[in-house]
Specification:
- By secondary structure, the protein is mostly beta strands.
- It has 2 domains: 10-148, Roll (Pnp Oxidase, Chain A), CATH 2.30.110; 171-217, Rubrerythrin, domain 2, CATH 2.20.28.10.
- It is 11% helix and 35% strand.
- The chain has a 7-stranded antiparallel beta sheet. A 3-stranded antiparallel beta sheet has the order 11-10-12, with no helix packed on it. A two-stranded antiparallel sheet has the order 6-7.
- A hairpin with a 2-residue loop joins strand 1 (14-20) and strand 2 (23-29).
């Protein structure tokens, strides 16, 4: 089967946030959908290996932060390529607490849900959430997974439902100039400034990996 056909389905890019006791946790996700409008319910899919999964299961509450095309791409890397178990993902992220869960300010909207049911698959938990509140924060277009893939040119974390194992092995399209690839998230740097001339303090715009994590590709 050609799994790339799944990319023709419509996905968004979201930051799922919740609490672990008094710690704020969260992860990047792209599989969330509205099931009903009255009462409003949302289905959310999270990988078993995501620490946020176990936290949502305990707290029975989560927020879906909807990223926009204007949102800082580094949010995707911060929440998608690191584990909340060992990292404070909110150190440099602006947020506010609403109904006991963190809401990311750099988003175009948020939806807060209470878990009312779950379904287990071999790799993921599907949480069914009753919407308790939500609001828009910015009028910028919501970021789609296609935009993330084609414009930002990021890859899916291995825990994402849309992750295709072979995609990490694909080589970038032929280019007339040397490109540099992040060894952590797969982001390709091909900016106008030569990579070698970037300051040593420069980090990957997706996952905040240091410049040393990049390797030359052609």
């Amino acid at each position: 089967m050609n799994k790339s056909v799944f990319r023709n389905l419509s996905y968004g890019v979201y930051i799922i946030t919740t609490m672990d006791g008094d710690r704020k946790v969260g992860c990047t996700a792209n599989s969330a959908m509205q099931i009903t409008s009255d009462p409003a319910t949302i289905a959310l899919s999270l990988n078993h290996e995501n620490y946020t999964n176990s936290c949502v299961a305990k707290t029975k509450k989560f927020a879906i932060n909807i990223l926009s095309e204007k949102s800082d791409p580094s949010l995707i890397g911060t929440f998608g390529f690191k584990s909340s178990k060992d990292n404070d993902k909110y150190t440099d992220v602006k947020y506010k607490m609403i109904e006991g869960v963190p809401v990311i300010e750099d988003s175009c909207g948020y939806i807060i849900c209470e878990v009312i049911d779950t379904m287990e698959t071999s790799t993921h938990t599907v949480f069914l959430g009753k919407v308790t509140t939500g609001d828009t924060l910015d009028k910028a277009p919501a970021m789609t997974y296609a935009y993330y893939h084609n414009v930002i040119r990021g890859t899916a974390p291995k825990n994402a439902p849309t992750y295709i194992p072979s995609e990490d092995d694909k080589k970038p399209e032929a280019s007339s100039k040397v490109q540099w690839k992040c060894g952590i998230c797969g982001y390709i740097y091909d900016g106008d400034v030569p990579f070698e001339e970037l300051p040593d303090t420069w980090v990957c715009p997706l996952c905040s990996a240091p410049k040393s994590a990049f390797e030359k590709v052609s």
